[in-house]
Amino acid sequence: MSLSSIVRAYIQFPLMFKLTFQLVMEAKLYRSEQLGMEASSFFVVSSSLLLLLVSTQISSAQLTRDFYRKTCPNVEQLVSSAVQQKFQQTFVTAPSTLRLFFHDCFVRGCDGSILLASPNNQAEKNHPDDISLAGDGFDTVAKAKAAVDSDPQCRNKVSCADILALATRDVIRLTGGPFYEVELGRRDGKVSTIASVQRRLPHPDFNLNQLNSMFSSNGLSQTDMIALSGAHTIGFSHCSRFSKRIYNFPRTLIDPTLNLQYAFDLRKACPLRVDPRIAINMDPVTPQRFDNQYFKNLQQGKGLFTSDQVLAIDPRSRDTVNLFASNEEAFNNAFVKAITKMGRIGVKTGHQGEIRFDCSRVN
Questions:
Q1: DSSP 183
Q2: What predicted TM-score, i.e. pTM, was given to this entire model?
Q3: Residue 20: which of 2, 34, 39, 36 has the closest Cα?
């Protein structure tokens, strides 16, 4: 990349110039007595970062709301109908599909790699952080894929990654959440490994710094992170994910940030040596409605995970929690913005990846 190209790009993307300059200064590359060599280093670093930025911008730009207008104009109706039928069979369809989309996007980007199976159990879905993903989420995508492919015009034209994105929007709507337009045009990834999941998903005991760091690495802000956490309003969790807070918290046994009555209720639902398959609702008030009750619960010390409750405890995030708790429209707007941004993470477009014939295996 030439000097003139870099200059033009920095004019167009001033934030990238700022970030690159900070990187170079922190690395102590720019010293006047070594200008010749270090200026070269500066432009090498600049070019690399700029290429990363441009590729991200191009991938995002290739996602459009009407991507299938010619190849499969009825794709949204086909997916929506299949999702609604599945939802009528079991409510678990909603939280499991939403969680599936999140886990897909945070590992290798939104490319449907979470859907791939492995004959030797070495795919993403086999990682301990993914093993608890409910089968209903996978089944929702499979049924929606079958519905899309039942239309001769659409057969093998729509990616599994896009079907998952659409199904996620639909389950949010079916549970009373906001409707939003989904950007489409993702291609399906061909790689899915256990190793790729390592340290890519947030843990229930994360503090705010850890949450912000992980979400920031995916281009999401603190407000995005808090809004996306609000999806826990229809979530559920196995007891093992939070048992430390109610039985083995250091010195106090019960986490002192946890509402005491809520802690006792959790102990009743999750007694010691409970069946590991038992799961409970993350929102004890309106567990089957996508609303802002999650944030009201946090205000009362009823966040199930440490990573939930910390949002209301840390002064850096508390104001946002209070805003979302008092203004559901503000939460809905922030959530739509955040999940749209999340849907752009690491997408494959153009000639990258493929359109899978079967969402569970590569072609």
A1: P
A2: 0.85
A3: 39
Q: Would you list which residues are annotated within the binding site? A: 104, 107, 109, 111, 113, 124, 202, 232-233, 283, 286, 291
- Measured in whole angstroms, how far is the alpha carbon of residue 87 from the centre of its chain? 21
Task: List the beta bridge partners of residue 348.
Answer: 187
> What 3-state class would DSSP assign to 75?
helix
Q: Taking a C-beta distance cutoff of 8 angstroms, is the pair 294, 191 a contact? A: no
CB 107 within 8 A of CB 197: yes
Looking at residues 6-34, what average pLDDT do you find? 45
- How many angstroms separate the CA atoms of 335 and 332, rounded? 5
**Phi, psi (degrees; rounded to nearest 5) at 283:** -115, 105
Which residues are annotated as part of the binding site for heme b? 232
Q: Which parts of 223-348 are beta strand (E)?
A: 236-238, 279-281
CA 361 to CA 363: how far, in whole Å?
Answer: 7
pLDDT digits (tens, 9 = 90+) for 204-238: 999 999 999 999 999 999 999 999 999 999 999 99
Q: Residue positions in the annotated binding site for Ca(2+)?
A: 104, 107, 109, 111, 113, 124, 233, 283, 286, 291
From the CB of residue 195, how many other CB atoms can be counted at a distance below 10 Å? 8
Q: What is the set of active-site residues?
A: 103
Q: What are phi and psi of 107, to 5 degrees?
A: -125, 110
Mind listing the pLDDT tens digit for each residue in 278-320? 999 999 999 999 999 999 999 999 999 999 999 999 999 999 9
Residue of 145, 133, 132, 159 lying closest to 83 (CA atoms): 145
The radius of gyration computed from the CA coordinates of the chain, to the nearest angstrom, equals 22
Distance CA 257, CA 309 (A): 8
Write the DSSP symbol of residue 237: E
Taking the C-alpha atoms of residue 320 and residue 317, their distance in angstroms, rounded to an integer, is 6
Phi, psi (deg, nearest 5) at residue 11:
-65, -40
pLDDT at 42 over 80: no
Residue 112 three-state SS: coil
The mean pLDDT of 83-112, rounded to a whole number, is 98
